[in-house]
Amino acid sequence: MDEESVSKEPQPRKPPAIPADMKAFNKKLIADFRANHGQWTGQMAGRSLLILTTTGARTGKERAAVLGYGRAGDRLIVIASDNGAPGAPDWYHNLLARPIATVEIGPEPFKVRARTARPEERDELAKAVPYLEQQQGLTRREIPIVVLERG
Question: How many CA atoms lie within 13 A of 99 on its CB side?
Answer without folding.
Answer: 11
